[in-house]
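pasting for the record
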Amino acid sequence: MTRQYWLRWFSLHGVPRVVLRVQSRKGDTFARMMGPEGIADPHPYIETIRSQGRLVKTPLPWVTCDHALVRSVLRDDRFGVRSSARVQIPKVLQKFANRVPPPANPADPPAMLRMNPPDHTAMRKPVVSAFTPRAVKKLRDTVETVTEELLDAMPSGGSIELVESFASRVPIAIIFDILGMPREDQEKFLAWGKDMTPMLDVGISRRTYGRAMQAAQSLNDYLDRHIEKLRREPGDDILSNLVRSGDLDHYALKANASIIIGAGFETTANLIGHCVSLLLRLPEQLDRLRAEPQLWPNAVEEALRYEPPVFITARQALTDLELAGVQLPQGSMVMLSLAGANRDPAVFTDPQRFDVARPNANEHLSFSYGVHACFGASLARMEATHAVRALFERFPDMRAAAPPRLRRQLTFRGYAQVPVHLGRKVQVTPSTVA
């Protein structure tokens, strides 16, 4: 990468990386939660922060794990997302970071993740319109077909790594359907997505940032060619409809196609991986689902609550304001622990327990809330519910072959590997898992 890109890494990630390490050595709970210890098991740190109050000042940002407060901030128009760095850095470093505009990617404007109303509203409207309940319902046939093809290819009595062979394959196939891309290019996108998602973390290494920027550039080049092709030969897919509408310029089309790829793929793959791993670890919960299959949608909601695919997010005060009895000046950063909110004992009884029959499991905040709520939430729920249920019904004796291995990422927290012994394969009719 060029010197300018390394300067951008230093400004946006290098400085926060050093600060987090220094604060972690000093014993700061938030910094330790954001580091390797927290990635391995964040919940002890979350509970320490929770015990200190609803809104806690750390040497870095303010932090909250309180369900009501997280929900309130997410829907409060006095807060917004930062349009550039995800953490506060000196203005001189921000100037350096902005000297080199990055390739279009989900981590930078004009991607919706980094925009506030009214620009965010104008950008989001044409994309959200493509994810109506009717549009998602039409994709169900594709989900069922893809799932069955993947299960048919799995060997009876064999062993596989489930993330690579299944959890990532279902959502990437759906994303390709949405964007009108040829199936043979899926392998490229799986590799690019793996390299790009760390960009949404704080303080990533220079090597990780370099791989992410190279992947982002490769994706940019691909999308340039693909969008031009759709201008000449539009299809019946969502991206073709966005191209035809003229509501988004070329750069915005690329940035938001990147969001659909990244968020639609990574979150659903993480959700499927978490759900399978939890049920393998807790066979009594799986037995209950077999006895009461109507609980499958609720089981997915509980997996979303218990292990949210997106662990943490942030909002910045757009004006001087009061929050939970604390005066916050304009520009104050508040880190919102979605994982902490999802285990708030004020909302969820026995929150550290995974319970597929939990009556209020769907009160989680895993898909965010307010103007930045995930527009693909209903699609992710549908994909995971069908895919995980079909997997366990096709392979009823499936068991873990080795402990699952987490990715070294916090924002998008999920498994890199879930090794399983499949056991015997049972032939089922589509109606069995409908």
